[in-house]
Design brief:
The protein is α+β, with helices and mostly antiparallel strands. It contains nine helices and 16 strands. The chain has a six-stranded mixed sheet with strand order 10-1-14-11-13-12, sandwiched between helices. A hairpin with a 6-residue loop joins strand 12 and strand 13. The longest helix is centred in the middle third of the chain and has 26 residues. The chain starts with a strand and ends with a strand.
Length: about 350
């Protein structure tokens, strides 16, 4: 299934700015690591040390920005949205409201006129925003009293917590990177609203962002099935033809998809289709391809990055390729919950352990 969309918002967590100067991170005032001593790698939390960085030669931002960067950089789509400036925080409310741009022929009052002709001033496009529920993600990092005793030296405790933060960071990145392909109904509806809802296989029905696609056709994406629309299953010999058939339906002037995200199967078929002409990739030099396997698609007047966002353990829907115009996509976080510790250090009431939530 090849699918495409033109307007999308994802509720989750995101980026915040931080000021240059002095940054201090502290979990336990009894243990301090001096600036000239070895501390944890930048972008890591610890339960048992305090580090102060000064000057522009040091990392000026704290761990919450580094962790947010690592999570968004782990997914090709989120990386593109961040580079476009489409990762924008919201400050509160029961839902996330995202303004939308669309053309509704039934309310469009744009027209030519002559002289004193009465102009049509009726309301143009009555729907002003889509709305999305707020989702939350957390990963716990814990250390027991026994482990604190066994690793009581400054170097040992930092290494222990640094390793566990690596695990928690990877788990958060992988979980969000997987859920972003799904429809948000997982985990009793608590998961992020992803591409499964934004660009569904049946684009003419269902509700997304509180807007019914059957009622408002502008909210419908486009889908192309190899068997249904092309007459045969997708193969290396016909995948470019099918991509062209979909792409021509998505272009309006200079508005066109800029990112094509493929699962393992379709990425492999597209790669095989290019090998005979050796039109191979930009080797990760483009903004979308940095760190990702990336090819180019030049059909139907487009010059889009084709990115493999699958790999081991991917939750990307099998045999799918998404044509995305990221100009109209947003990743919306809360300004105060941008992959940061929740509530600081805790002491378990019935265990000799100290957990933190991130």
């Amino acid at each position: 299934m090849l699918a495409a969309m033109s307007s999308w918002a994802i509720p989750s967590q995101a980026l915040q700015e931080c000021n240059e100067g002095v940054t201090t991170r502290s979990w336990s005032p009894e243990r301090t690591v001096k600036t000239q001593e070895r501390a944890t790698r930048k972008g890591r939390y610890s339960l048992s040390y305090k580090v102060t960085y000064r000057g522009k030669d040091k990392e000026p931002c704290d761990n919450k920005l580094e962790l947010a960067d690592n999570v968004t950089n782990n997914n090709a789509l989120l990386r593109r949205l961040k580079e476009r400036g489409n990762v924008k925080t919201f400050s509160g409310g029961n839902v996330i409201l995202q303004e939308i741009m669309y053309n509704d022929s039934t309310t469009n009052n744009t027209n030519s006129y002559s002289g004193y002709e009465v102009l049509n001033v009726s309301q143009n496009s009555p729907i002003s925003a889509a709305q999305f529920g707020i989702t939350q993600y957390a990963s716990a990092v814990s250390i027991s009293g026994l482990e604190m005793i066994q690793n009581s030296g400054k170097e040992a405790i930092i290494d222990l917590l640094d390793g566990r933060m690596n695990v928690a960071e990877a788990q958060l990145a992988n979980r969000i990177g997987s859920d972003i392909y799904l429809d948000g109904t997982g985990n009793s509806g608590k998961n992020i609203t992803g591409l499964g809802a934004a660009v569904p296989d049946a684009p003419s029905s269902g509700t997304y962002g509180g807007i019914n696609r059957a009622t408002y056709t502008f909210w419908q994406s486009v889908a192309f099935s190899g068997l249904t629309n092309g007459g045969a299953a997708v193969t290396a010999s016909n995948i470019q033809q099918y991509m062209d058939s979909l792409a021509v339906q998505l272009i309006r002037g200079t508005d066109k998809p800029d990112l094509i995200v493929a699962d393992n199967i379709f990425y492999r078929l597209y790669l095989q289709s290019l090998q005979s002409i050796q039109r191979i990739s930009d080797s990760g030099n483009s903004s979308a391809g940095a760190g990702f396997a990336s090819l180019k698609y030049y059909g139907a007047g487009m010059a889009s990055d084709v990115v493999l966002d699958g790999g081991i353990g991917s939750a990307a829907t099998a045999s799918h390729m998404w044509f995305l115009n990221t100009k109209y996509m947003m990743f919306r976080p809360h300004a105060d919950r941008n992959f940061v510790p929740i509530g600081g250090e805790r002491q378990a009431v019935n265990q000799d352990a100290k957990p933190t939530l991130h």
